[in-house]
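note to self — DONT lose this again. spent like an hour looking for the file last time. sequence + predicted structure for the chain T wanted, 218 res
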Amino acid sequence: MGTSTVGFPEILFLLRGLGWTLILTAFGFVGGILFGLVVALARVSKNRLFRWPAKAWIVVFQGTPLLMQLFVVFFGLPLFGLNVDPWLAVAVALTAHASAFLGEIWRGAIEAVPLGQSEAAHALGLKYPSLMRDIIMPQAFRLSLPATIGFLVQLLKGTSLAAIVGFIELSRAGQIVSNQTFQPLLVFGIVGILYFLMCWPLSLWGSRMERRLAQAAR
């Protein structure tokens, strides 16, 4: 059986897969930011009714593989009468996964803000919402930025697992093109380059932020 060339249609198909990879990453990251903020605030709460469920959420989603989480969402929800397509299953799993990691990252950043600032704010009569919004969270966001960017890189690469539930993102598109053209080295070389072009700038950005924080702390 002869091989086929990797031409414009195949490259276009890979780029469509790349587009879905970026969409999945953006959806999971934005959802993770929203729910992760809730998790982080619950983790630093003095109320056990908030703190313990948030801790359990983090333990479950950090302690289990993303692949298993995808399977549970895609195959588990139909058992409760909720049929979901691959796109929604992957988006939900990535959001839950990201919220656990980002929530823990931001929890650490919140607790890294000097306690004296909170005490000064209380002395000035600031309420808890104003304290978090105006004093704690801006500093925590700055402290957590390198780790947040690092997690974004991991999340982007983690979208490749979406192929397991039948979603065609970049890795799955590469597999399909490879099976059609019988040129796996070339096809996955292109796929690897595309991943590199997405991840490398983010890694550089994260490293630059980390160096700036280190210099500012001196």
